[in-house]
Amino acid sequence: MFYKILFSARKSFSKNLIHNYSSQNVQRRRVVVTGLGIISPLGNNVSTSWKKLISGECAIQRLHEKEYIKLPCHVAARLSDIELHSMFSKSDMKSMSISTMYAIAATEEALKTSNWYPNNEVDKQRTGVAVGMGMIDFTDVCDTYEALKLGYNRVSPFFVPRILSNMAAGQISIRYGFQGPNHSVSTACATGAHSIGDAFRFICHGDAEVMIAGATEACINPLSIAGFCRLRALSTSKNPKLASRPFDKSRDGFVMGEGSAILVLEELHHAKQRNANILAEILGYGVSGDASHLTAPREDGNGAVLVMSRAMSDAGIKPKDVTYINAHATSTPIGDIIEAKSIKKLFKHHCKTLKISSSKGAHGHLLGSAGNLEVAFTVMAIKDKIIPPTIGFDTTEDEIADLNFVPNEALNWPDESKMRIALKNSFGFGGTNACICISEYIP
Questions:
Q1: Could you tell me if 215 and 195 are in contact, meaning their C-beta atoms sit under 8 angstroms apart?
Q2: Is there a contact between 389 and 406 (Cβ–Cβ < 8 Å)?
Q3: Segment 173-187, tens digit of pLDDT
Q4: pLDDT tops 60 at residue 293
């Protein structure tokens, strides 16, 4: 009897919330997630990456190459066991950057899990791509400059297409024949979240029925490590397993990671008509600007407060409806505490039941491909009713010590009487912010 009452109350809550959401967005179409693909330091597919994340594994390793010896940072989260040569032809590898190949590999898995392989012109014309990139491949640029010193003819004719930040989106569109919106953003560490949010709006407003959305990054090289070291942004820890420690009092900078994550977003009726497996629903999207500093977040956290508020407003929900926040928290001394204070400022007494975690302790910070990877993990958290942990966490500053950062061990999703709703924050250099509101799908 108790469970019948609980289930009835939960369904009533969900229907009321969706009614409120629909009434505030009368003309807007609902958007669901029907596919995921992941290439990450934790694993080269969704299943492996997710299992390692919730089991508390850390993929950060020491950099042993001689080029890194003189640099202050000696750790990173690289991909492992990915055989690009077996996945791409020699011709592909000449014309594509490594980051583009990561994106295509993730797209293959996303399309497979979604079972979306359109074979007619109408479906292809209604399928778009929104895949961004934070930084171009510095290794490509450096190697090509050295080649130019030896002679003009040593420069590859594919050099420019390889380094353009929209080429991952372009190559995916060409490879699969998708003729809908062909879109790419580059907003530093908010790139992946902006790509998904923009794709969500394309579907909401009828520009597409299906969007392939996410980002990609292949950024680990001596020049990029040196550049971020000069900004004093990277961890100088000698222990790879304790180098990325989001929200922990001893955090000293982020650890660079790389990879790609791709989502298949789909208009609800389109997904239902083809009997697609719906993993979650995107309820809302918020954007804001700090208007403050090149690399540091706004000290009062107003940009973060605005972006979370706007995402919730877009979704038609209130702070009390949110159970989990997948934080941007990169393990920097300034950024993490400002984000945490912003959450406290916005959620007030609701913080007592709020769960907050950052998965970057496990896989590092994927720069432009961080937000999309963490959106994918948030979708899995909602689907499997498991909140991923913040690993490497011990203690934090007194002023945010009352927040629940889900330290070191995953949690079962609490309060089954409430609809499962989460926010995903992403913040980038230049003061650019994005927030995605994600929920379980309720018919």
A1: yes
A2: yes
A3: 999 999 999 999 999
A4: yes
Tell me, what's the pLDDT at 416? 78
Q: Where are the beta strands (DSSP E) in 317-367?
A: 324-326, 355-357
Active-site residue, selected from the candidate residues 58, 73, 189, 204: 189
**Cα separations in angstroms, 131 against 165, 170, 388:** 9, 9, 25
Q: Is 436 helix (H, G, I), strand (E, B) or coil?
A: strand
What percent of the chain is predicted at pLDDT more than 90?
A: 92
Q: Exactly one of 74, 194, 365, 437 is catalytic; name it.
A: 365
CB 276 within 8 A of CB 111: no
Average pLDDT of span 27-46? 96
Q: Rounded distance, CA 384 to CA 399, Å?
A: 32
| Active-site residue flag, 189 | yes
Q: Of residues 328, 351, 363, 435, which has the active-site annotation?
A: 328
DSSP three-state, residue 352: helix
The pTM is what? 0.94
pLDDT at 52 over 90: yes
**CA-only gyration radius of the chain, Å:** 21
